[in-house]
């Protein structure tokens, strides 16, 4: 499936500036589609309505009723493909004289593309999928996006945003509760409280920044000073026993998402979160920061060693060249002495 096609899966609005290639790639009508859309089964503007129902469902997984309007470039393509006169109609409802015809065309479009609606039989499957996907999702919106692709792959019509969002929020909250339970189990409470107290404490020196602000400061250029600063951060984190916290039960991308929230939020705002939310995010931040700083120290150390090797090898080559010049001069003098007839 092309990247153009996947672009519109789960979309609730379509860009007005659709390109001709996007329309043909994602919303195109095949010869068989055009034959199916011929009279007497489909007549008048309802014929165009059925075409819109078909291509919208096929490309986005949603019925066109979920969209606020139809891009004009798409209407021009469909009317041209069907051999109809161009129209300025911008909504699906205006293409039908009665609702019953529209519902019949929705059913026809679902049967044509092999889609089914989410009902009582498929809702438990969706709930299970959301529970599984929430383990790797970094936010509710990310979970919704993944679930839309899950529904589309299984040829299920995407439900309304409110329905899907409510189910996603529930699944995401369950995963977050599991993450909090994992932290309570894997990180000793005394160590967590000591780490929190130290993170929000002021650092000595100018500026009056907290330890948390210092830890989230991005690294400078590769060099000895940056390596020294990174080493200090690692020593600080290890002094808090963070390297002993086994948080493998929480996916790394979820830990990074919680950590990013701490980076993007002022320390005071993080401090006044609820106890569970604060501990989850601070513990994740400290754990991820230790991982990142360790990798950074190894990277900078390797670069420093490479630079040292290049400098040392350059000096050795220079000395070898100087020695070669000296030896060549001595060899010339020796030849002069050996072949001197006096």
Describe this structure in words.
- The structure is a single chain.
- With 342 residues, the protein is mainly alpha-helical.
- It has three domains: 3-113, no CATH class; 123-186, no CATH class; 189-321, no CATH class.
- The chain contains 15 helices and no strands.
- It has helices spanning 3-7, 20-26, 31-36, 44-60, 72-82, 99-113, 123-133, 140-153, 161-186, 189-199, 211-215, 224-239, 252-264, 267-271, 275-338.
- The longest helix is centred in the C-terminal third of the chain and has 64 residues, at 275-338.
- It is flat and about 120 Å long.
Brief sketch in words of this structure:
The chain has 342 residues and is an all-alpha fold. Helices cover 66% and strands 0% of the residues.
Tell me the count of domains: 3
Averaged pLDDT? 86
In N-to-C order, the SSE pattern is HHHHHHHHHHHHHHH
**Poorly predicted runs:** 1-5
List the total number of helices.
15
Class from helix and strand fractions: mainly alpha
Q: How much beta, percentage-wise?
A: under 5%
From the spread of the alpha carbons, the general shape counts as: flat
Please give the number of β-strands.
Answer: 0
Major sheet summary line: none
Measured between the Cα atoms of the first and last residue, the distance is 93 Å
Helix share bin: 55-70%
Rg, please?
A: 33 Å
Oligomer: single chain
């Amino acid at each position: 499936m092309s990247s153009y096609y996947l672009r519109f899966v789960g979309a609730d609005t379509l860009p007005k500036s659709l390109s001709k290639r996007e329309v043909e790639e994602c919303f195109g009508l095949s010869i068989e589609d055009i034959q199916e859309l011929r009279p007497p089964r489909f007549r008048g503007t309802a014929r165009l309505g059925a075409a819109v129902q078909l291509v919208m469902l096929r490309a986005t997984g949603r019925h066109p009723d979920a969209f606020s309007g139809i891009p004009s470039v798409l209407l021009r393509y469909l009317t041209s493909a069907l051999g109809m006169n161009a129209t300025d109609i911008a909504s699906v409802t205006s293409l039908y004289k009665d609702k019953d015809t529209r519902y019949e065309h929705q059913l026809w479009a679902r049967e044509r593309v092999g889609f089914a609606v989410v009902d009582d039989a498929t809702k438990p499957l969706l709930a299970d999928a959301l529970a599984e996907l929430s383990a790797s999702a970094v936010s509710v919106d990310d979970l919704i996006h993944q679930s839309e692709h899950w529904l589309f792959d299984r040829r299920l019509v995407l439900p309304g945003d409110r329905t899907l969002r409510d189910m996603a929020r529930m699944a995401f909250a369950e995963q977050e509760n599991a993450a909090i339970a994992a932290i309570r189990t894997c990180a000793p409470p005394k160590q967590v409280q000591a780490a929190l107290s130290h993170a929000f404490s002021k650092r000595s020196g100018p500026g009056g920044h907290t330890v948390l602000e210092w830890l989230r400061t991005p690294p400078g250029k590769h060099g000895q000073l940056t390596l020294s600063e990174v080493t200090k951060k690692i020593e600080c984190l290890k002094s808090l026993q963070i390297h002993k916290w086994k948080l493998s039960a929480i996916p790394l991308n979820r830990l990074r998402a919680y950590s990013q929230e701490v980076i993007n939020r002022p320390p005071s705002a993080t401090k006044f979160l609820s106890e569970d939310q604060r501990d989850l995010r601070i513990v994740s931040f400290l754990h991820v920061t230790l991982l990142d700083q360790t990798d950074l120290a190894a990277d900078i150390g390797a670069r420093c060693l490479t630079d040292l090797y290049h400098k040392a090898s350059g000096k050795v080559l220079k000395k070898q060249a100087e020695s070669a010049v000296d030896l060549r001069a001595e060899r010339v003098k020796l030849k002069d002495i050996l072949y001197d007839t006096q």
